[in-house]
Amino acid sequence: MDRNVCKTIKTLRKERGLSQEEFGKLLGFSARTVSDWENGKTEPSIATIKAMVKFFDITYDEFFEED
C-alpha cells in the first residue's frame, strides 16, 4: 500500500481526536482493520476511501497528496 495513504489515514484520524476503534466504528470497520490500513498491511477499497474523503470533508487530491 502507498505509504502516503497509510500516513494520511492516521494523520486525519488523529487530527479529529479519534481512536482506531472510534474511527472504525464510524465507518463500519474494526480497530484491527484501521490498524492494518495505517500500517500498510491491507488497503481500503475505493468505496471506503470515498467514505473517508466524505467523512473528513476533504478532496481526493488532499487525501492522496504527497508530502
Characterization of the model:
- The protein has 67 residues and is mostly helical.
- The protein contains 5 helices and no strands.
- The longest helix is centred in the N-terminal third of the chain and has 13 residues, at 3-15.
- The chain is globular and about 25 Å long.
- The mean pLDDT is 94.
The largest pleated sheet is described as: none
Can you count the helices? 5
Q: For the residues shown, what is the average pLDDT?
A: 94
Instruction: Show unreliable segments.
Output: none
Distance N to C terminus: 16 Å
- SSE topology string: HHHHH
What would a concise description of this structure say?
This protein is mainly alpha-helical.
Tag the structure with descriptive keywords.
single chain, 67 residues, 66% helix, 0% strand
Write the layout of secondary structure elements.
Blueprint: H1 3-15, H2 20-27, H3 31-38, H4 46-56, H5 60-63
